Amino acid sequence: MDGEGSDEYRIAVAVGNPDHAEQLVRTAVDVARDRGGEVFVVGVVVTPRESPFAMFTDDVIAREFGGERRAVLDRAVEVASGTGVPVAGKLYVASSVARGVLAAIDERDCDALLVGWQARRRENAVLGANVDRVVRRADCDVLVEKIGALAGAVEAVLLPVAESPHAELAASVARAIAVANGARVDLLRVISGVGEEPAARDLLAGAAESLAGVEVGTEIREGDVAEEIVAASRSRDVTVIGATRTGALRRRVVGSTPQAVGRRTEGTVIMAQKGGGSLVSRLLRL
Question: Domain with 252 in it: what CATH number?
Fold first, then answer.
């Protein structure tokens, strides 16, 4: 099915690593199904501007030189096709993965984008160069998923609760995963002292109300936020955490706490950033 021109909710999922493509597609399907929407699978063939490929059209490059990427894309579409959720896919040609993905979400007017992240130790990249660019510049909601060693059956989803513009998106993703897998959502609020407990209980109660139809557990822990989330994640299958708005403008990607949790958690972590044509995106484009 080709979803171009549709008013339905559409989530794009960028696939490249064959080891992670199927899991990313399953997450996208869970989110799309919960919103009555569709999945758009994106693959990118990278052709540096200085390369001999400049003499060919994008269609020729995708057809003649995109064999490996095409195979990953086709397999991902096949996985989604058996779920009952409408799915389409397209192979893009661009000078970088980030440019190809951004072109895809713009062309199909996507409401959300899901990308994979493999933790790397690089001083000049927070999540990896391509993921950093996409998270900063996308004009839609962005979900960054690190697939952990425990990926598989989901029985419990950990949702750290914070007062953040990204909290509602994180909660909706956690709920979608829980509904699709018959799982429980465990809400966690980390505080710095006992004096914060009453406010923490109120915050957890409000978050629980937004998760109607799902089994919910609540917990309050005292200590360092990242450390407590990592500790709690060890007994859950998936952790969904909203972005935090910290740091200078140019380094404001997802925030220090989600980064720390993503790097240190062994299981699957999904970082959620609410988008929608933000000022940060427009400034970074300039």
Answer: 3.40.50.620
Cα-based distances in Å from 101 to 43, 184, 251, 254, 277: 8, 33, 20, 18, 16
- Domain with 219 in it: 156-272
Side chain identity at residue 259, one-letter code:
Q
Residues 77 and 160 in one domain: no
Task: Report angle CA 3, 9, 245 to the nearest 5 degrees.
Answer: 130
Q: 200 and 189 in contact (C-beta within 8 Å)?
A: yes
Distance between CA 161 and CA 164 in Å, rounded? 9
3-state secondary structure of 41: strand
pTM: 0.83
pLDDT of 169 > 50? The answer is yes
Q: What's the pLDDT score for residue 253?
A: 45
What is the distance of C-alpha 194 from the center of its chain? 33
Number of compact structural domains in the chain? 2
In angstroms, the CA 233 to CA 154 distance is 13
Phi, psi of 141 (to 5 degrees): -60, 145
